[in-house]
Amino acid sequence: MRKPFVAGNWKMNKTVEQAKALVAELLPGIQAVTSVERVLCPPSTSLMAVASLLQNTGIGLGAQNMHWEASGAYTGEISAAMVKEFCQYVILGHSERRAYFGETDATVNKKIKTALANGIIPIFCVGETLDENKANRTAEVIKRQVREGLADLTVEQADKVVIAYEPVWAIGTGLAATGPVANSVVKEFIRLPLKEMFGLSVADGTRVLYGGSVTAANAAEFFSEPDIDGALVGGACLKPEFVQLIQTAAH
């Protein structure tokens, strides 16, 4: 059985004081749902403060990005060692990083390898744009992202990765995919390549999340699908409804 997994990606929101207030508001409700793996991913400026609030709660902490080099002249970046001081997880390959900051399958692959080498669990994002979706290129794009993003990993490494399917056209638009459509993408274009690359055990055991305009109102539609194990949540994770969303995952 794959344990349900819900992560909240705060993106570029909340100062340190606002982050502390949000965690204080959400913590009692989130902490009660122990049957779901729960992860908060605030901006890097708030990681230290949030880490102290999450101590001994059973709730994980994730960074939103990291560099593959250990140190050096990479202004504005943070390394795996810096992430590891506070976090157990890191979001890698998010479509916003790919679109706005020039990330490629090759650089995402370097980051995934670096995260795993440092004992950090990657939440690896894949997803097609609206143009790619309309051109019936979803299969091609998702399979390529999976194969190239996870290239040259061992079976043991691949087994630790969490994957998030986030159709780019659904992120922050209110246009969530339907549960059955998202499930078929996960089953055919994510789990099948995983099986080809790493075997049935990894394909069956990997947690795959859905992301893209997930709310407490529509979450059950995705969580009820057999190949979707949870969600990578954007806007809704900054509101009290995030607690309801996690409770939905538990059921």
Record keyword descriptors for this entry.
single chain; 251 residues; alpha/beta; TIM Barrel; eight-stranded parallel β-sheet; 8 strands
| Count of beta strands | 8
Q: What fraction, in percent, of the residue positions are helical?
A: 40-55%
Shape: globular
Count of separate structural domains: 1
Low-confidence stretches: none
Strands in their spatial order, largest beta sheet: 7-6-5-4-3-2-1-8
Q: What gap, in angstroms, lies between the N and C termini? A: 14 Å
CATH architecture: Alpha-Beta Barrel
CATH superfamily: Aldolase class I
By secondary-structure content and strand pairing, the structural class works out as alpha/beta
H and E string: EHEHEHEHHEHHHEHHEHEH
Q: Approximately how much beta-strand content do the residues carry? A: 5-15%
State the helix count.
12
Please characterize this protein's 3D structure.
- This protein is α/β, with parallel strands linked by helices and 251 residues long.
- It has one domain: Aldolase class I (TIM Barrel).
- The chain has helices spanning 16-31, 47-54, 80-84, 95-101, 105-117, 130-134, 138-149, 155-158, 179-198, 200-205, 219-223, 241-250; strands spanning 5-9, 37-41, 60-63, 89-92, 121-126, 162-165, 208-210, 230-233.
Helix and strand arrangement:
Layout: E1 5-9, H1 16-31, E2 37-41, H2 47-54, E3 60-63, H3 80-84, E4 89-92, H4 95-101, H5 105-117, E5 121-126, H6 130-134, H7 138-149, H8 155-158, E6 162-165, H9 179-198, H10 200-205, E7 208-210, H11 219-223, E8 230-233, H12 241-250
Parallel strand pairs: 1-2, 1-8, 2-3, 3-4, 4-5, 5-6, 6-7
